[in-house]
Amino acid sequence: MSGTVSGRLDGKVAVITGGASGIGAATVRRFVDEGAKVVIADVQDDAGELLAKEIGESTVYAHCDVSNEADIAGAVATAVATFGGLDVFYANAGVMGALGPIAETKTEDADTTIAVNLRGVLLSMKHASRHMQAQGSGVILATSSPAAKVGGVGAHTYSATKAGIIGLVQSVAAELRPAGVRVNAIVPGAIVSAMTAGILTGDAEDTSSARDIMAGFEKMPRPGLPEDIAAAAAFLASDDAAFVTGSTFHIDGGYTYAPGDSPFATGDWSTVGMFEAGRRTTGADGS
Fold first, then answer.
1. Of 248, 264, 269, 282, which is most buried by a Cβ count within 10 Å?
2. How far is Cα 154 from Cα 286, in angstroms, rounded to an integer?
3. Which residue among the candidates 67, 162, 193, 255 is catalytic per the annotation?
4. Is 90 a catalytic residue?
5. In terms of CATH, what superfamily is 13-189+224-259?
6. 233-261 pLDDT tens trace
């Protein structure tokens, strides 16, 4: 437990896919800290059951392969049967999937990536929305990536699926708004997790080394942590975000929209104005 208790999610019931590790596990803990009951939906049975046991009666584990529609429907049914409803569905599960040059992409790997990363989100919205529309309220969240908007920072199929999530969120948000259901996307930057550790070090367990490596190329004073994303998800799931839908929240240290190093922060600049033909004002007050 993080010890962060605000009660913003008191009485809420949530399903979090990919909830057994990384961003998902941090979000499970944050939601419970804020008063929610949570279904941990994942394919990592041992990790999911261990997390549920660690947290206690506010959680339950449900095996959920998001490429399998029956598993998603089952996770929703588990929330309703165990905790009495469904208020938040966070479609967080995803894989890096197909890697390599576009000319050599393996079709079966691309299909699996799309099935998990994009179709899984669509099916999550399908089954969550059925319950939420009936009750006239609810929140659906989905995890995208800077690779949705920035070329060259993610694998090809991964980038396409993450861009698709943003389009899907905007489209579904417009449909579900009259029913009182909000839909938003979260864009994490490079986050210290088993996935990034596996990519950077070859060892998914070596998150400590991954954090050291990531600290060297982040714009912020530290790399992003799963808890940073969990905090954003808790806000979006709460009534504090009651007027927020169809939006994309970048929790990426400015990677997507402020990637440059400002010369005014890194250089020795005089306060001047520059105008036509190189004419400059002088003096600290611009006169």
1. 248
2. 44
3. 162
4. no
5. NAD(P)-binding Rossmann-like Domain (3.40.50.720)
6. 999 999 999 999 999 999 998 989 988 88
